[in-house]
From TrEMBL:
GO molecular function: catalytic activity
Gene3D superfamilies per the UniProt record, alphabetical: Cytidine Deaminase, domain 2 (3.40.140.10)
Record domain CMP/dCMP-type deaminase: where: 2-113
InterPro entries registered for this protein in UniProt: CMP_dCMP_dom, Cytidine_deaminase-like
Name of the protein in its database record: tRNA(Arg) A34 adenosine deaminase TadA
Taxonomic placement: Bacteria, Bacillati, Actinomycetota, Actinomycetes, Pseudonocardiales
Pfam families the record matches: dCMP_cyt_deam_1
């Protein structure tokens, strides 16, 4: 068994723990460059009443806060399911090295009943507006 498989199996165990506690069945762990598990978490969106309490999101925030950039770049996140758009954005900003997932988003959708409620629907967005005013606090920040 490869290390990737070993860590993915742990992520799947965490997903089972999440489901057993009344939450959606998703789990993740973060493995350091030396192969040591640095942190692990499970989905707690229901029990925490927090729509952002996905394990990937929580671990990405933890890594950004607790790890130096070099260590973060050497880490691998193992997760039971492919990260959603929200988590993908957090991962991109966290500086983590890579993500390995067990179940793709497409595979997840195939496991849902056709009558299952839609978890996330797009919210209409409008803009851009007021460029001259909105650019004032931003201009020069990213230099």
């Amino acid at each position: 068994m490869s290390d990737d498989e070993k860590y993915l199996r742990r992520a799947i165990e965490l997903a089972g723990e999440a489901r057993a506690s009344g939450n959606p069945p998703f789990g993740s762990l973060l493995v350091g460059p030396d192969g040591r598990i640095l942190a692990e978490d499970r989905n707690t969106t229901i029990t925490d009443r927090d729509i952002s309490a996905h394990p990937e999101q929580k671990l990405a925030r933890w890594a950004a806060r607790e790890l130096d950039p070099e260590t973060a770049a050497g880490t691998t996140m193992y997760t039971s399911c492919q990260p959603c758009g929200m988590c993908t954005g957090a991962l991109a900003r966290s500086g983590l090295g890579r993500v390995v997932f067990a179940l793709s988003g497409e595979q997840l959708e195939s496991l849902k009943e056709p009558t299952a409620p839609v978890v996330a629907k797009p919210v209409p967005q409008e803009g851009p507006f007021l460029f001259e005013e909105a650019r004032v606090p931003v201009e020069g920040y990213y230099r």
